Amino acid sequence: MPSLDIATRETHAPVNELTVVAKRHPGRWLAALVVLLVAAALVRSVMQNPRFQWDVVNLYLRDFSIGKGLWLTIWLTAVSMAISVVLGVLIAVMRLSANPVLRAGAFAYVWFFRGTPLLVQLLFWYNVAALYPVISFGLPGVHLNANHLITPLTAAILGLGLNQGAYQSEIVRAGIISVDHGQGEAAAALGLTRGQTMRRIVLPQAMRVIVPPTGNETISMLKNTSLVSVLAVPDLLYSAQIIYNRTFQPIPLLLIACIWYLVVTTVLTVGQYYVERRFARGNHVLPSTPWQRMRTLLKTHTPMAKGSAR
Fold it and tell me: What secondary structure does DSSP assign to 182-240, as a single string?
């Protein structure tokens, strides 16, 4: 009889005390083990290969010139992305405008800057003084020397920002289009202008679509800054090149550049994840953090969801 009472109590246990036992997948664990073994063998091979010259890597990893180049790379990324975001919003709104002239101008901008290589654009801005030795901006009395105005750093900012602005405009346009058209109609019925509707209603809702690709473009921008080394801008890669041209040790210096690019990219990736999570707060279920995913993976019993036992 006691065993019957126990069975009865287990059968009539409250739903919130029931748990679900996850199905075992031995094939997944086997595949994970194989990947870990291959990764360990690769790391061991790299660390034990004397040709990588890890002592030189350790010597120059925190070198002052490398640090200055890293800081300039981060600064270029931030400034260029800020320019591209402003241009992206402006061009996207022009692309969606009812004015055909604005639409045509925005389309021409995107067509040109997406259709030509970034390296060519950087070289063009660097040599723009050959076309316009004096820049006046169409204003009387303004005569600026282009050689003094367009420095290598200025050419780098113009090239990176204007090129990225074309891609960013398509990201923003996709986000705006993703918002239901009825939102704009409701705002117009309430007496809001088109600018107020865009600023207060459409763009905040479009951020869920805009943020993820913008994060990816920020990481791409970080790596694209390496192209400014052709303009002799002392970014991270150019600083490494200066050192290995003097020491004739290209491999360890390039490894140092790779290490710092990976460090900054990792920080940006983590930041992007939490920014996306913040803009997803309106969803019923927020995306799990890496720690929550690990806990779920290692957990044998998980609580049964309400209503699933009916």
Answer: HHHHHHHHTT--HHHHIIIIIHHHHHHHHHHHHHHHHHHHHHHGGGGGGGT---HHHHH
The rounded distance, in Å, linking the Cα atoms of 278 and 294 is 21
Domain membership flag for residue 7: no
pLDDT tens figures, 24-65: 778 888 998 999 999 999 999 999 999 999 999 999 999 999
Q: How many domains does the chain have?
A: 1
In this predicted model, what pLDDT tens digit does every residue of 21-31 receive, in sequence order?
Answer: 667 778 888 99
- Which value, in Å, is the radius of gyration of the alpha carbons in the chain? 28
pLDDT by residue (tens digit) across 168-210?
A: 999 999 998 988 888 888 888 888 888 888 888 888 888 888 9
Residue 292 lies in a domain: yes
Give the CATH number for residue 69: 1.10.3720.10
In sequence order, which residues have a C-beta less than 8 Å from that of residue 184 and are 6 or more positions away?
A: 197, 201, 202
